[in-house]
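During data preparation, a discrete fold description was generated, as reproduced here:
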Amino acid sequence: MLKRLRLKFICINMTIVMVMLCIILSLVLHSTQTSLESESLHAMERIAASPDSLIFGKPGEDESVRLPYFLLLMQNNRITIVGGDYFDLTDERMLREILRAATDASKDSGILDDYSLRYYRTTGTLGEICVFADATGDLATMHSLRNTCIIIGVASFFVFLALSFFLARWAVRPVERAWQQQRQFVSDASHELKTPLTVILTNAELLQQPEQSEQARTQLAGNILTMSQQMRGLTEELLELARADNAQSRVTMQELDVSKLISDAVLPFEPVFFEQGLSLETQVEPGITLKGCADQLRQLPEILLDNALKYSHPDTVVTLTLRRRGYSHCVLAVSNLGDALSQEELQNIFKRFYRADKARAMNHSYGLGLSIAQSICDLHHGTIRAESAGGVNTFTVDLPL
């Protein structure tokens, strides 16, 4: 799929580039040809406008005319020739053929390719006038320009093709990364669901055996219930993660008292921490307001406190603080005393299904909470980071006000 996407990107990019390049080169050719024709025809019009003065003079005497030319004036089937030394005007048969080709042409001006002459035909007071000018220079210029444009076009094609390959890899890289993350997510989710499903199926099969005692049946039913609850918890977190990922398009932002919201979210955790032999200290600066989604922001302290509850050493203190940072930001931080996190763990801890302590995999810890927290921060244009120093692990959320 990614190869087809890159190929499609290259084809579209090359089509656009080549169409634009052809248009630009065509405009250059057209404008150059038009300029050459206009300059030559303007000089030939001046010559045709005063043929009577040229009959008694030399072409070189007119300083405004700077192209080799000759003029044929037709009066009562008699042809008068005016020209310089540039052309051989002694061959009358050739001159009549040139004149016939010019008079037979549908336009009053143009180029006779067979003779490399530009002609201009008009009728004046003395009779029909046909001015011929040497077009060799113009034709050579256009031929050279066409060859140059072809060379530029071919060279540009290969240059842009190489650039398109590079840009295709760069443009598709986020898609490739997302595709790999999706595959990893599906693999991890399947693995997480496979274990409880296996336990449920095994216990259900044992429960159907008639030789099982009542006590064994009770234990097997309890195992099924425990695994079912674990699967429900995982499914709920997966749904919550999906909602957090998709909230950007449908969430409603409103002005919130985030100080009150955080304080209310912390209250249910105080008895839970007490039962686990932990102390919870809060320092919430009052009056902090920001624009956001209440349901989403309420989950941030819940996720961070739940994480601290699972990974704190017994009989220690967990600290939650909310304070302003300057005039435009607020900082929510949760610190707990626990096993120090390595640099690798600090980099990977916000990845989905990542757990620093693999032993907690069966203790309702699925490695999704911090991923949900990061999605919420992204939704509110904030950041979340983890730090570990001196055995104290701190998770810090920075949100714009």
